[in-house]
Amino acid sequence: MKRYASILFLTLTLTVSAWAQWSSNPAVNLPLADNNNGSDQVQPKLVPFGKTGGYVSWFDANPDSPPPIGYDVYYQSLTEKGVERFAHDGIQVADLSNSSTEDYGLDVDAQGNALLAFLDTRENSNQQVTAAKMGINGKPLWGKLGIQLTSDSNFHAAPKIAATTDGGIIVAWTSNSNVVAQKLNKQGQPQWGAGVVFTETNYNYSLADLHAADNGSVIISWVRNQGFGSNAILVANKISTSGTLLWGANNLDIFTVGSLQFGNFPYFVPDGSGGAVFDWYTNGPTLQVFAQHILANGTPAFPAGGVAVSTNNNNVRVSPSAAYRASTSEVFVFWTEEDSNQVFNGVYGQKLNSTGTAEWGPTGLVLVPLGVDQQDFVTAVQTGSGALVFWVDVVGFGNSTIQAASLNDDGSIACSQFAVSSTPSNKSRLAAATVASAAALVWEDDRIGNNGIYAQNVNPNCTLGLP
Predict the structure, then answer these.
(1) Is the overall model pTM greater than 0.85, yes or no?
(2) Cis before 68 (ω within 30)
(3) Which of 111, 129, 179, 386 could pair with 198 in a Cys bridge, judged by C-beta atoms 3.0 to 4.6 Å apart?
């Protein structure tokens, strides 16, 4: 069986190898879904697996697809050279009738299977939560409909999925004002009864993020508020392989002073040792970016409430992206810096040591000075001894490019600003990951007249294409 799977996998790779690979030209990039019949291909996610490539997923509302018409779930497998393992435009995971999209989940298990969690309309008029396991050959391993985790009249939102180190799979989602987590075995069978439910009287809980941790556990985070206009804070806990709350029954408040921007559900970064790095920005008392490192036992490595990345009170800052360097327990944070009127924008960065002390000066490093261009979707990955940073430079509507820079550990410039995608168009929703020793980036791009999904690699020396 293993020999047959290997032959099939190699055949798929050779069959599509002539179609595409990483581009060395920032004006070209690699199209993964570029159907220009008016379809909308949106919300890409990217996960690497080992040194052999990664998976990309997205939603596709193709008007020429068979009924029902809606935002369908697709995915594609890429080799480390940027070759599509499946047919161009990807494989459909679920044919849905969703008229809009929400956040969803993508991960990969130890066998290289893609795991997806999404809102589903195929078995109930009310959106339900479904998990799908897709094999390396593109076949559904949990049946055509996957595993439906809910079947009720509750409001469901933003499911996430994570493969644990003990071979299990955790799916979490928002259900009314609660957050629910459920463990599945490799066959997709629920292991935690009705699930682990996070709830609090008179409070709304909304899932933010979910990642595997150590010893088969997961770390889960959510936003807690009392309704529109109330302060919203970030809360987290760690769930053991058996469903026990490892960070206490009262959960762990990541911060208590200030409030998240309405509709902001921050992601976090696992530290690889059972803990996680959280970054967020508050909208009160001012727009400010913070970071916190929670160790495996739930102890904050930084001062309580997190540390601000800058002491500049004349400007404000939003939309951070953090990267973690495990060998030194250092956190890199990059964000959009704005003047007090939020007219001029730039890209700034900061490095925090293992105790949260700022090492790139009290106000951080300036990558892009404040200017009239809008700097959006700042996204960072840790590479070498430093970090690689991407962002969308918006000159005006229909005229955006993706730029990047590489920083050394001491804040010096390893590679000054360079273009990753230079074709003027609307670009958004960047997602980045490290694949082998390089970085890969996916995003929405309307260069064909409607949104498509594009990808690009960046080598350690900041060149594009095959080394």
Answers:
(1) yes
(2) yes
(3) 179
Amino acid at 384: G
